[in-house]
């Protein structure tokens, strides 16, 4: 019986392209845990999920899974959307449903965010998304109260901008 060929799992490896390291082929994955203090301060202190890739490159997010594990006090939203951004509001921006974070223990909520069809809000030279970190942030108004944590899993690629 001939051996069975099993191709590599695309989410489990990064393959360097070019002698200098260059961009990576295939999806890259990162996981981040957000504390209650980080969630309460998202408007003024965004949390970087993926560091800026360097001049001439951009992060292209493909899928995010955001899991909120509720605490004993529901978060109070004073307005303003949570979002995943590369380059801020003038870059690649995908809004999260703010209601997903207003549960109390023992509840939890999950949001799956697909970035298909999301484009750059405004052009520039260089564009806002070039050499920018992938962050989770809040557009306006901090959460007023609440506790709980969040776990964010991001599937992304690093692409050349030119």
What tags apply to this protein structure?
mainly beta; 1 helix; four-stranded antiparallel beta sheet; elongated; 162 residues; Jelly Rolls; 3% helix
Walk me through what this model shows.
It is a single chain. By secondary structure, this protein is mainly beta. The protein has one domain: Jelly Rolls, CATH 2.60.120. Helix content is 3%, strand content 40%. The protein contains one helix and ten strands; from the N terminus they run E-E-E-H-E-E-E-E-E-E-E. The strands form three sheets. The chain has a four-stranded antiparallel β-sheet. Strands 4-9-6-7 form a four-stranded antiparallel β-sheet, with no helix packed on it. A two-stranded antiparallel ribbon has the order 1-2. The longest helix is centred in the N-terminal third of the chain and has 5 residues. The protein is elongated and about 50 Å long. About 13% of the residues have low confidence.
SS content category: mainly beta
CATH class: Mainly Beta
Strand order of the largest sheet: 3-10-5-8
Specify Rg, calculated over alpha carbons: 18 Å
Count of helical segments?
A: 1
Helix content: under 10%
Order of helices and strands: EEEHEEEEEEE
Q: Can you tell me the overall shape?
A: elongated
Can you give the mean pLDDT?
78
The biggest beta sheet reads: 4 strands, antiparallel
The number of strands is 10
CATH topology: Jelly Rolls
Number of domains: 1
Alpha-carbon distance between the two ends? 48 Å
């Amino acid at each position: 019986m001939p051996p069975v060929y099993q191709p590599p799992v695309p989410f489990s490896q990064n393959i360097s392209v070019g002698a200098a390291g260059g961009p990576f082929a295939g999806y890259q994955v990162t996981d981040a845990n957000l504390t209650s203090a980080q969630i309460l301060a998202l408007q003024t202190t965004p949390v970087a999920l993926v560091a800026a890739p360097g001049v001439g490159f951009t992060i292209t997010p493909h899928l995010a899974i955001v899991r909120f594990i509720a605490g004993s006090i529901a978060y109070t939203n004073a307005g303003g959307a949570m979002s995943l951004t590369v380059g801020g509001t003038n870059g690649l921006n995908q809004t999260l449903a703010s209601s997903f974070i207003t549960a109390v223990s023992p509840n939890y909520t999950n949001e799956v965010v697909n970035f298909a069809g999301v484009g750059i809000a405004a052009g520039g030279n260089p564009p806002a998304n070039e050499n920018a970190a992938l962050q989770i942030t809040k557009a306006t108004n901090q959460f007023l109260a609440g506790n709980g944590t969040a776990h964010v899993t991001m599937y992304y690629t690093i692409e050349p901008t030119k």
